[in-house]
Amino acid sequence: MDFALNSAAPLTLFIGPEGSGKTTVVRKVASETNSKRLIGTLSHYSVLESTPRAAIFRALGASAPRNNTDLDKATFDATMIRANMQHGLPTLMIDDADEIQASTLQRLFDICATTQEGLLVKLVLVGREDFDHKLNPEIRSLYSPVVKLGPMSEEDTSDYVHHRCAVAGFKTMPFTPKALKELYLVSQGNPLILNVACMVALDEARRERQPMIDSDQIKRCCAKEGIRASTFVAGQVAKE
């Protein structure tokens, strides 16, 4: 993502399956990078349709009208050019951009496009894996690189659970090694499914006052709640 943000490409796509952690990564990158350059995130699409320039202004931390009026092109362009000279190219990261109408995306690109002075705003669009099919050929030619967030490996899944348990204040690891392996098999490395499976198992262990959670309990809880990776993860074949 650092490479993508610092590349000369006007548009970067950040794609991945639902629940793979794209929003978490975007927020982390934005918080860590904001001290070095002007970067903002946006997820309210209605304002993009009605007042797009004002919405971009507010996402980047600048003051803008909060009524139904939008900024004029001259004011927007001049401010973005000045911000580029002072802080580097402003970057806007739009979460769940695959839910935005194609006409709104086109208008957004037109606003942020290159002028005689250069690119006004760099865009990072976050969406599902098939998001690029929604973009017209002209827009597709603009983006590079495409960053794809895939599922975690079995080792990463185990590390993730250890980390979350430590942050939650567990003094000892509540999941056995076999339970961790089963969690990976159930989730296929998808953080959203993994979080749900762990929560369900921990809730049952709390009710039954069990100090440790084994693989059988993971299987039982997930079967009871209908938790399967194939239910959530795009491209996975349903496994009975």
> How is the main sheet built?
5 strands, parallel
Spatial gap, N to C terminus: 36 Å
Written as H for each helix and E for each strand, in order along the chain, the element string is HEHEHHHEHEEEHEHHHHH
Runs in which pLDDT lies below 50 for 5 or more consecutive residues are 231-240
Radius of gyration based on Cα positions: 22 Å
Percent of residues in helical segments?
Answer: 40-55%
* Strand line-up across the major sheet: 2-3-6-1-7
Tell me the overall shape.
elongated
Count of strand segments: 7
The number of helical segments is 12
Mean pLDDT: 84
Structural class: alpha/beta
Beta-strand percentage?
5-15%
Secondary structure elements and pairings:
Layout: H1 2-6, E1 11-15, H2 22-33, E2 39-42, H3 45-50, H4 52-59, H5 73-87, E3 91-94, H6 102-112, E4 114-115, E5 118-119, E6 122-127, H7 137-140, E7 143-148, H8 154-168, H9 177-187, H10 191-207, H11 215-225, H12 229-232
Parallel strand pairs: 1-6, 1-7, 2-3, 3-6
Antiparallel strand pairs: 4-5
Helix pairs in contact: 8-9, 9-10, 9-11, 10-11
Q: Would you kindly provide a written description of the structure presented here, covering whatever features stand out?
A:
The protein has 240 residues and is α/β, with parallel strands linked by helices. The chain is built from twelve helices and seven strands. It has a five-stranded parallel β-sheet with strand order 2-3-6-1-7, sandwiched between helices. Strands 4-5 form a two-stranded antiparallel sheet. Strand 4 (114-115) and strand 5 form a beta hairpin. The longest helix has 17 residues, at 191-207. The chain starts with a helix and ends in an 8-residue tail after the last helix.
